[in-house]
Amino acid sequence: MNKIIILIFIPLFLLNCSFNENSKIWNKEKKIVSESKKIKKVLLEEKKIQQEFNSNLKIDLTQININKVNYNQNNFGSLKYSGLLEKVENFNFGKLKNVDSLDFSPLFLQSGFIFFSPKGSIFRYDDNKKIIWKKNYYSKSEKKLNPKLIFSKIENNVLIADNLGKFYLINLENGDLIWMQNNIYPFNSDIKIKDNNFFIVDYKNTLRCFSIKSGSELWNFQTEDSFTLSSAKNSIVISNEMVIFSNSIGDITAIDALDGSIQWQLPTQSNSMVNENYNFKNSKLVLSGKSIYFSNNRNQFFSVDVETGKPNWKNEVSSSIKPIVIEDYIFTVSDDGYLYTLLKDEGDIIRINDVFKNYKPKDRKKIKTIGFSMGNENLYITNNDGKIIVINLSLGNIINIKNISRNLISEPFIFDNHLYIINNRSIFKYN
User: Fold this and answer.
1) Residue 104 pLDDT greater than 80, yes or no
2) How far is it, in rounded angstroms, from Cα 329 to Cα 43?
3) What is the distance between the alpha carbons of residues 33 and 38, in angstroms, rounded to a whole number?
4) What is the average pLDDT score of the chain?
5) β partners of residue 341
């Protein structure tokens, strides 16, 4: 009886959720103006994505601007880095325990950065590896839980939240504590700041708004919870007076930043399907212009109108990694090692390059992409085997593969013409 019910409802669900009439790889003839799109080759017929496509297509990126990072939009674009990959410094912080992913980031400053040790100590380094200050605000029992910290800078202070549910404000210059609060549940997203408030999502899929001045909660909005803890962080972007966030079951929700009222919600998955598959992962949301871009490991890439929550288009790309939006293009790397180039407005896939082509087939199955960043001209992709792959983005070809660590590494971070990568005991800095 149960099987019959399932067979009835699955087709209905697929019909209701499939707004993918625009899902395509250039499946119809298009007139391409080389001066506006800067593209030299097109595909004129529909083709299933299983391998490289238009791999020799050249894209003119010579006129792109080096981006000024908009943290509230997760829109990093092209950053200033020449790409020599010469290691100049190791910043050691002690071995992180019980980590299966390094999905946290240093807080980069004009001179040095802020990071944490396995027991929750916060330290500020300058560019010469000198520790300016070091503080720890955890009890003996909390230190044993190896807290993982999230940072965000606000004027001359630093906001910190963790996977234990603590959040606090410290002084940037000396690390002194200003206030400390506790949440009911641990946090599971980045921190976003608007005016005098900040926003963060916890493991119960609840968006919470706190006062920066005191840490008191102003409002919260809870979305539907999942049966299991997600292994991926939820994501937040801010557009004007709206806070838009993802949760662990694939819902994208827009909330009024002032009073916490809902503006729109877009479910992208069946809740039952997500709860039956514990490894569901969304990428981070990226806001560019009037659209939000994101993908997941269910072979879905979305463009969504930021004002209404209605999908602009949907295409078939399986990736849980944050995409990069540059000019007219979107770049992302799939979970099975293909670099996709899409047109931003139409969602058409115009090029696919195999970035794992140098791996043997038996080894390739074990390799997963961690993340990627874009420098002046090149894309830097890190994998779970401790390697970084350098891609010329204009041509789509591999120009370098470098061993970084024998252990798990983080996504690459570009700041002030340097590239940084974390392993489970050090931060590596490259010229």
Assistant:
1) yes
2) 17
3) 7
4) 87
5) 331, 351
Among the listed residues 423, 335, 425, 339, the one whose alpha carbon sits nearest the alpha carbon of residue 389 = 339
Distance (Å, whole) CA 404 – CA 97: 19
**pTM (two decimals):** 0.87
Q: Is pLDDT larger for residue 1 or for residue 220?
A: 220
Give every CB contact of residue 335 below 8 A, 6+ residues apart in sequence: 297, 318, 319, 320, 368, 369
Distance of CA 342 to the CA centre of its chain: 18
- Max Cα–Cα distance, the chain, nearest Å: 69
Q: What is the pLDDT of residues 224-233, one digit of tens each?
A: 987 666 667 9
Give the sign of the dihedral formed by CA 265, CA 271, CA 273, CA 276: positive
pLDDT of residue 406: 87
3-class secondary structure per residue, 328-346: CEEEEECCCCEEEEEECCC
Q: What is the pLDDT of residues 368-392, one digit of tens each?
A: 999 999 998 899 999 999 999 999 9
CA end-to-end span of the chain, whole Å?
63
d(CA 147, CA 162): 6
